[in-house]
Structures
1.
Amino acid sequence: MTLPADPVPLDGKPTPARPDALSTSVGTVAAAQAYLLADGSVDRYRQVLADGVDRVARRVAAVDRPFTGIAPDELAPLVGDIELDRPLGDHGTALDELDEVWLRDAVWFHHPRSLAHLNCPVAIPALLGEAMLTAVNPSLDTWDQSAGATFIERRLIGWTATRVGLGPSADGVFTSGGTQSNLHALLLAREEAMAQVTDADARAVLLSRLRILTSTAGHFSVQKAAKLLGLAPDAVVTVETDAARRMCPQALGRELDRCRRADLPVMAVVATAGTTDFGTIDPLPEIARRCAAAGVWLHVDAAYGCGLLVSPTRRHLLDGIEQADSLTVDYHKSFFQPVSSSAILVQDTRVLRHATYHADYLNPARAAAERIPNQVDKSLQTTRRFDALKLWLTLRVMGPDAIGALFDEVCARADDAWALADTDPRFEVVARSPLSTVVFRWCPTGIAPELADEANRHARNQLTASGAAMVAGTTVDGRAHLKFTLLNPATTSADVTLVLDLIAEHAGRYAHDHPLGRTDRTADMSCSVV
Ligand SMILES: *Cc1c(COP(=O)(O)O)cnc(C)c1O
């Protein structure tokens, strides 16, 4: 079979010459086999891994900004020009090449001015776990591919469930991320909602009428899940938020009533503990009360806010989370774990059966009867990484209080940053987050809102292009805003002040160069944020 031409533009450059000896040295099975990790290759394993670690360490030590600002058009040909059918034959040369095409222009989340997304600096014990789990390469689907790893994962699910305060029947499984955890939880909720209905026609009708309620600030993965679960296009009903961007319980009550009157069964309410955009936490006790009264499944999406589970001072912000029927936790956001490390937890282990299928070759029903602990019986995935090892080593080396203290610290840093922006007349801020998010907008008096929109977008692009800082952008009530997501305890107020100054400088220059957008209208006509 011939493959189509590589879609990455080759930029018309001639292919650089490679020493031919290198490309043939791996031509025999014996030579190739020496690359497989086995008793005879442990020296190579040690050396190669150590060299890779050294390359990363040197880069980490040397970076002076979170990003080089390289544009996609500059980088694409570097990757595109590489001839994948002509191996370099040794890892040193491959690492040199990799430095050119990746490491040199990577985005560095350990840098104090890396403020854009929910990527955290990573705990070294977790990196140790990552290196070990990939070398041993267990797959967590069945006991006979995993053995003890199965119990490590189960202990961590149990540990997390205890932290949440779920009951003795709680259970769960690690997943690839919050998106998958939300999908998994909503699959279970859908199956519970449809459990009593067996007739095929009646099931089809019910499926088309099921609704999911979540706030306007809920994560978009809820919409994706609804689509994958075969629900109607209008199945996700958004509930309005209050001025603090938290789901309004009265509005939830009204939507629950409206759905009941319209005979639209609500299969789940998704509350968010840490909205991605605002870092706000829905009022969980009040939402849980309303769900219990209506007999509706409560899913809590704590992908971001889960770090509070180990917080020494802020754990109470999650009060009510223990009433969830299911919840999502992303250790790779607020537990300082490398991607990926996430889990879905459920209050009652029995609901996990909705994702159980028995395959004769893998996990026959007989194995379940014999109490063989096959995690695939609980998971949407089959082959699955031993991501739990990273959290395990982090807890065994650092302990939960240390992780919680780090997360507390970034929440405090973000609170300081919010106050800085709030008292600065050049900026307007949105809802103060109890977590680590600051949403704001450059908007001095007298600047037309449309011009401010453009100036904020321009400032963000300029920051990225210079690599001086990485900040996120979002839209709030139709207006362009900027966002800091602080997950790095090394970020200081001086870093925040510097970045705010840079934003004001870029935005101010843009506004100055586009004077037609200026307005003489007074302050009350300038942009305002709820
Ligand atoms: C990040 C996030 C998700 C998605 O999680 P991934 O791990 O990126 O798949 C879901 N919900 C919330 C609230 C999030 O912040």
2.
Amino acid sequence: MSIYDKYGVRTIINAKGNVTRLSGGFLDAEVSAAMAEAATYCVDVAELQAGASAVIAKLTGAEAGIVTSGAAAGLLVGTAACITGLDPGKMARLPDTGGMKNEVVMVRSQRNFYDHAVRTAGARLVEVGLPDRFAGAGVRDAEPWEIADAINERTAAVFYVAGGNARPPLADVARAAHSAGVPVLVDAAAQLPPASNLRRFIQEGADLVAFSGGKAIGGPQGSGILAGKRDLVMSALLQQLDLDILWEEWAPPASLIDKDRLRGTPQHGVGRPCKVGKETVIGLLVALEKFAAENDHARTQRLQAIIQSLQAALTGVDHARIVPTGGANPKLELHLTPDAPRTAMQLAIELARGNPSVHVDTSRAHAGILSLSAWCLRDGDPENIAARIKPLLRY
Ligand SMILES: *Cc1c(COP(=O)(O)O)cnc(C)c1O
């Protein structure tokens, strides 16, 4: 029995990984205990974010940082910061960006549905490059000179989506943007591990970088980090906070908010709907410190051990080859043979529908491959997964 039974919700076995749709991963006991304790006190939320900033700055090498309600929320308030700077009048007008710098330049091949968060702040995306390498028709993607070419007096930021496939290299993009005085905002939501990536994008020239707290960091599902230049982080926080307070009464923490550089109190900004509760801030901080403290090698070994028990449990499965992938984010692939009783997609659908419900990665089902991740598996899950798969692959 779990708390979910009480509300008529079934729990699932999540072999897909820490995706939002399947509720991310699960919290370490130390993280949940910290959240439970945090929930029993009241604090000033701006002071709480200033405390978070010190931790995030230390672990990312950035000047400052805040806890957001996810990486996507970080992109929204980060974009807003690039558009408005420290002008409370502009903050109040978003997402109406009339008369403001409102263009955000990005490489066309990096377009994805999370960039909706950038557009939500009121920005218009300006796409650069023609990525014919993906069509097999050519060798190009986008080049730094094309980014420089797209920057003009209306450009608020360059947006970069980090990843193994991302071109040109971030350092080159940052050079092009900075020589025109334009900041670079990086989506690094899922770029952990390795833990060294907490620092990497700032080192390579990002002015702001957003990470998901609910993925590998192991924080609350609805959490994230936005780290970067002090002024931009200050502006982002001002547009996320609830500031229902009179100017003379308002005493924000000086380490993160310079009241004397503002003309007035920014009112509830474009990021106010992405509010972050105190339990979430504390949970994220405890999880982030744990993540940064765990050696990458130890983390990989912990995941490898789960993959090995899954592999052992699946021994003797019919009509499929079992292929461990290795690497820092180890997975187990199920390669179905052509004579299997179901296609890979049919198998995945049956697995999710049955009891216990098992979710796997279907992104290569078209090639007959299902992929299973170790990140969100609990004790006993490997055996339960094998017990569901084996009969479905038998005639
Ligand atoms: C997961 C993801 C996001 C969203 O992160 P949240 O923390 O769920 O808001 C944004 N961008 C990319 C590339 C992602 O993988």
